[in-house]
Structures are given as structure tokens and as C-alpha cells.
Amino acid sequence: MTQRAGFVALIGEPNAGKSTLTNAMVGAKVSIVTHKVQTTRARIRGVAIEGNSQIVFVDTPGLFIPRRRLDRAMVAAAWGGAADADVIVLMVEAHRGVTDGVQRILDGLEEIGQGRKVALAINKIDMVEAPVLLGLTKELNDLYPFVETFMISAEKGRGIDDLRKWLAEELPEGPWLYPEDQIADLPLRMIAAEITREKLTLRLHQELPYQLTVETETWEERKDGSARIDQMIYVMRDGHKGIVLGHKGETIKAISQSARAELSEFLGRKVHLFLQVKVRPNWLEEKERYSEMGLEFKDGNA
After folding, report:
1. Beta-bridge partners for 123
2. Mind listing the domains of the chain with CATH numbers?
3. pLDDT for 74-113, tens place per residue?
4. Residue in 26, 20, 69, 68 with CA at minimum distance from that of residue 40
């Protein structure tokens, strides 16, 4: 049988369920999932197999109005992921409908969707009644000529098989792009940093999660098969450092334990994780921080 392989970009507003869908499609956790918006910073590729097709999912950052340099880099990464894809899937939350943000994305698709197959996936369908779904489907298809529409619940797995089978048939013919047992093309060091950042985001609230980043500084393979991982958490203010550490170091200890457990499960072996916190007031303006996140550093206000 003919082999197929290609890239599928999942685009949408922040929190539309793109990371959850990526993880459900791949069958493993490759993308950070939290209830906070704007948690996916780099384009994370998860690799799924469906029959003789290899589907490479590009889970892009949510598309929103950028205000800071990091925001601009994230939005550029999202549109870049869509521009490079063979198939684009726009995810829209059923209960939110056509928001201003969705309309802006539809406007962007008018340019970037030319010559590409663009499908619509209405997510979180369990949150609305059938007549609302039908009305939203008609409204969105009147606004843009989607080649196919899918009703899904990424979190509960509803409709995902149909979407995956359709995508498998739509990809171009050609050899697979990754080894059969590879589920993500992010370096393990970056996946490890993302896992720790997710635990920080889940544990800490308010604005702090957007003002910190995690880098894997060293990764040592030990003779007993375990791995020692040293990570640095960069924050912008001394007060932030205190929040991350917590009373008598309790917060960072809990975060470390949670991240270590997930890393051990992900890697299938014991992990020794060591976290440090460092104050870097201008990390949002440092080119090397963006390189670590897999984002392009843009000069000025570009």
C-alpha cells in the first residue's frame, strides 16, 4: 500500500484545545496542557500513525493580539506552522462560537489557506445543544470554504478517530518523515523543560507563569540507566523567585516531585531532577531564551 506523510497544523484561539487534541491523536503527552491560555510557546510536533500514513501534528501557540516581544514570536510561530503545513485544521470552541479572535483567524486564512486543505474542528461539543452546533457549523462554513467539518471533544476522545482517518487520506504520498517509534521531534531537553513549566503553570496563578521560562541546562546519562537532569527556572523579579520557592522551599519541592514523576513515566526510567531559580529581569528580551524555546527572536516591534 502507498505510504503517505505530511504536516497538519492545528490553529485556533488560546485554550481552544489544540494541545489536548495533539496528545489524544499521538496517544502520548507531547504538548503542555493547562487551563491557562498561551501556554504553548513553540510549535510542538507530535507524530501519529494511521494505517500507512504518518501524520505530523504541529500544535501551534494560540493566535491572539500580540503585545510583547514574546507574544509576537508566538503568533509568528503559529502562522509559520500553518504556512508550512499540508493540511490546516481550525479549532473553534463550540460554546464560544465566532468570537473576534476567530474572525481574525478566518481573515488570516484568506491569505495563508490558499492552495491548502483547511478543515474545521468544532471542539467541546458536549458543552452545547445540537441546534447550536448546527447553527455554528453553517455560520463558519458561510464565512470560509472549509473542505470538511468535524464535531469533536478532544478531552473525551469523541470524533477524533474520524478526524485522524480523514487526515491520513489527505496527506501527500511519500516516505515517512520520522522513525516509526518517534512521537515528537522536540529534543528531549526541551520536552523535559516543557513538563516542568507545565507543573509551574498549574501550581502558580495570576501572571507569573507568563513571566517565567525553564531551560534544561545539563542532562547526564548514568550507568544504572537513570538520568540526572538539571534545570534553571528564570523569573523576572525577586518576588517571583519567592513565589516559586514557596515557604521553606515547599512549592518548588512539590513542583519538582510532580515533574520528576511525569518525566520518569515519559522516559520509562528513573529520573533525578534538580531545579534552581534565577532572577533575570530582562529574559523576555534575550535572544538565547527564545532559541531555547524554539522561537524566532524578532528585533524591535516587528
Report:
1. 93
2. 4-170 (3.40.50.300), 188-293 (3.30.300.20)
3. 555 655 656 678 888 999 999 998 988 888 888 878 877 6
4. 20
